[in-house]
Specification:
single chain; 546 residues; globular; disordered C terminus
């Protein structure tokens, strides 16, 4: 566990490494969602399963991928700077302490769930959701341990393994779908819940060999098994973890709240939101999470080295690199999103109504794509300094805002699931605005004029590409985007060849129009980043082929 040197190229390399693994996992996730949509469609039983999964995943997001990583990495980097052996024992004791905490917490939640089922007069729908949640919950322990191992691997700049590990998770989930496809939905979802728990275990086990190999470079096997629980170092991390629990998981909390409200608005509502958010999360994961995961360790090292100029330059570079991709993706969600939903899910039990409702939900989540990515990248700027209060305050405000909007939209105005997706997006906008405002006050990390000029060029180019795509789709293809906006719902293209042709033409037209605009304006900052990304990709490909 040696020292590393950080600069824009190193962040690009780490992000691309994470992205390459994540891309494979997202492709497998896409196959998983297609299988569920084909076999089960948007039935009330599968919607109940998705609600249970979302509730269980909330615990995973809080104690796993979100707060745990952002609490562990800065502390680990600080200990490693002084003594690699201390850092290794810190990981060991953190691992043991988290096992104890989660086992007790999961046992308590299971007790509460079964007490509600047995002693309260719950509806059949509520009981089904609670029972499925109880089956999935034990798997949260394994996925949180996977997140801790991922933190260690990311500090060692080993991003590919953490990105690709979910492939095993998705493979087991897909297998479960097809194994139970002939069962009645209420029985099938129980089998899916068991399969999810096994999938969580397999995802963690994939990271263990490499994790052990890294640890054994600094400690021997005897030291590795002499773990201690709740050491002073671990208590300091738990203190920051408790503050970042909500701070880093606002989007996940909002999504979980949306799912519950969607069940109230419509029994099929959670399914519409689930399919939509998985499409929206594709660019969010590939770009936002990839760059954010690569950014936190170097920002932490820059802070520990008192290198403020490097801290600011790495943050601005990461934001611009993300926006080059995310802004076009956000505009593309509104122009090509309907064709994308139809291509991926539009067959089997996923009918025209399901396609229409999922598209509306996707548009609602699309509003929040840019602020969600900005929040993902700004949060590490605070966590690197061990400032967990600022993201906590911003996220609490975001969560409260989303909850109030959901109450008003569902209970007062009787709106459908798409309005809940829009609420989450508006809350994400507020979260990003508060984080950026506080970052300027606390670090004077003001973004340069060239950054904002580049943002304007990217937005205009994306809007130009989107306008051309809408025009061609409306007049020459069976795209339903403009008809939906005008208030009518037509028939979507059925048949894979027709769906693929429609989406392919629209996607290529959008991409080519955007790239041509960027080539014409000749923005130096954008061109610099694109050349860096291209050169890094070519080098990685050459190394792989060699």
């Amino acid at each position: 566990m040696g020292n590393v040197i950080d600069h824009p190229r190193s962040i690009t390399k780490s992000a691309l490494s994470f992205l390459s693994g994540t891309a494979l996992s997202r492709v497998s996730g896409l196959a998983r969602d297609m299988s569920i949509a084909y076999v089960f469609g948007t039935s009330s039983a599968i919607a109940a399963f998705l609600v249970a999964l979302r509730l269980a995943n909330l615990l995973r997001r809080i104690f796993g991928e979100g707060a745990l990583l952002n609490s562990f990495i800065p502390h680990f980097e600080a200990y490693r700077k002084d003594n690699p052996n201390t850092a290794a024992t810190f990981f060991r004791d953190s691992f043991a302490s988290i096992v104890v905490v989660l086992v007790l917490l999961i046992a308590l939640i299971e007790l509460v769930i079964y007490s509600c089922v047995w002693f309260l007069e719950c509806t059949a729908d509520t009981i089904q959701v609670l029972q499925l949640t109880a089956i999935i919950l034990p798997g949260v322990l394994f996925i949180c341990l996977f997140s801790l191992c991922s933190g260690l691997l990311q500090c060692e700049k080993n991003y590919f393994l953490t990105g690709i590990s979910p492939v095993a998770f998705n493979a087991i989930w897909i297998a479960s779908v097809w194994i139970f496809r002939n069962q009645i939905p209420d029985v099938a979802v129980v089998g899916l819940a068991v399969g999810i728990t096994i999938a969580f275990l397999s995802q963690w086990l994939i990271t263990m060999p490499k994790t052990l190999a890294i640890l054994l470079q600094s400690v021997n096997i005897k030291e590795l098994v002499k773990f201690r629980v709740f050491t002073p170092e671990m208590r300091r991390m738990l203190s920051s973890l408790s503050m970042s629990v909500i701070g880093v998981t606002a989007a996940q909390i909002n999504t979980a709240v949306d799912t519950v409200f969607a069940r109230v608005a419509s029994l099929e509502g959670p399914a519409y939101l689930n399919y939509a958010i998985h499409i929206q999360q594709l660019p969010l994961a590939l770009i936002g999470i990839s760059i954010s995961s690569a950014l936190l360790p170097p920002l932490s090292r820059a802070i520990h080295s008192d290198n403020v100029s490097q801290y600011k330059s790495l943050l601005e570079f990461s934001l611009l690199a993300a926006m080059i991709v995310v802004i076009p993706c956000s505009i593309g969600i509104f122009t090509v999103g309907g064709a994308c939903v139809n291509l991926i899910f539009g067959r089997g039990h996923f009918d025209h109504v399901s396609t229409y409702q999922t598209t509306l939900c996707l548009w609602g989540y699309g509003v929040g794509l840019i602020p969600m990515v900005i929040s993902l990248l700004l949060a590490p700027a605070f966590y690197a300094k061990k400032d967990y209060h600022t993201p906590l305050k911003a996220s609490l405000l975001s969560v409260v805002t989303n909850f109030l909007c959901n109450c008003i939209l569902v209970w007062v105005f009787g709106c459908g699931p798409a309005s809940l997706a829009l609420s989450t997006s508006l809350a994400a906008c507020l979260n990003a605005a508060v984080l950026y405002s506080q970052l300027q006050k606390t670090t004077q990390a003001t973004l340069s004029k060239s950054f904002f000029y580049s943002m304007i060029h990217i937005f205009i180019g994306s809007s130009f590409a989107g306008s051309i795509t809408l025009w061609v789709g409306y007049f020459f293809l069976n795209d339903q985007t403009v008809p939906i906006v005008l208030g009518s719902i037509g028939q979507y293209t059925r048949g894979f060849s027709g769906q693929f042709y429609e989406f392919g033409v629209l996607f290529l037209l959008f991409a080519v129009s955007f790239l041509l605009f960027i080539a014409v304006v000749k923005n130096k900052e954008i061109s610099k980043i694109l050349r860096l990304l291209l050169s890094r990709t070519v080098k990685d490909k050459s190394s792989f082929e060699a």
